[in-house]
Structure formats: C-alpha cells, structure tokens
Design brief:
Number of helices: 4
CATH topology: ph1033 like fold
Strand order of the largest sheet: 2-5-4-3-1-6
CATH architecture: Roll
Largest sheet: 6 strands, mixed
CATH superfamily: ph1033 like domains
Distance between the termini: 12 Å
Radius of gyration: 15 Å
C-alpha cells in the first residue's frame, strides 16, 4: 500500500463535501507527473491525506482511500467542461482520474505546523516550488501527519 497527498481548494471541493458525497472521482488533474501517479502508481486501498490548498491556513483536513483505480477523465473530452482538452478523446484519453472515499476527518494540520516538525523536513509537500496536486507521501510522513491530526489510519 502507498500513501498520497491530494490537494483541493475548499471553495471548490472541501473534505466535508467528500464526506457528504461518500466518494468522488478526482477529475481535472492536468499535470503529467500527477496524472502518471494516478495512472501508474495509485492502487485500490491506498491511503490519502486530503489537503485544503489556497486557503488560510492551508492544511490537511482528513483521510481518504482510493476506491477505484485510474481510468479516463471524461471531463477532458467534454467541450463544456473547464477541464476540456481538445487533444483528448474517448478513443485516445490523455488524462486519468481515480475515485476516493472519505475515511476520517482530522484536526486541521496546518502547513505551518508541518513545516516546523523536524520529522517532516523532507516531505515533498514542503519542498520549495512543490505544486503538484497529487503527490506521494512516505509511510513515516503519513503516520506523523495522522498523529498530528489526532487520528490513527
């Protein structure tokens, strides 16, 4: 099993909405490295830190789990979607999505608190210029963030 961090802006799709929905497809990822993670590495049952970005303060809000492995992102061939990509089609999909389901809400773990924790100093999220919306997290870092948020996975 692998561990991941997935970013969402809380005014677009907050963790509370994932809880209300029961599961969702993670569409609209338009970065090749993040797409490759979802296509090649994310597996059923992998655990996810759900991160609220572009908010004050940015923070980890909850735990989720991959409940469906990568499949074509249909929003990429929907001309009415903001995620439309004219080079993607059902016959030749360029973009991938996975489905996730909520596991546990956690006490918010802010980016500032993550940064001052020496056990997390080499966590990808904290690297300068790190903007990936989907990124791997080591098991050690995952467990430390869970501890900080008062949950056990």
């Amino acid at each position: 099993m692998r561990h991941w961090l997935m970013k969402s802006e809380p005014d677009v799709y907050p963790f509370s909405q994932l809880v209300a929905d029961g599961s969702t497809h993670w569409d609209g990822v338009r970065n090749y490295q993040a797409r490759n993670f979802m296509r090649d590495a994310m597996k059923l049952g992998d655990l996810v830190l759900f991160y609220h970005s572009n908010t004050k303060p940015p923070h980890v809000a909850g735990l989720a789990r991959v409940c469906k492995e990568g499949y074509p992102d249909h929003t990429s061939w929907d001309s009415d979607s903001k995620y439309f990509d004219e080079k993607s089609s059902p016959e030749n999909p360029r973009w991938i999505m996975v489905d996730i389901e909520p596991l546990k809400e956690m006490q918010a773990v802010s980016l500032a608190d993550l940064r001052i924790n020496p056990a997390l100093e080499d966590m990808a999220l904290l690297a300068r210029g790190q903007r990936l919306s989907v990124q791997p997290v080591s098991e050690e870092h995952f467990l430390e963030v869970c501890r900080m948020g008062g949950v056990t996975p």
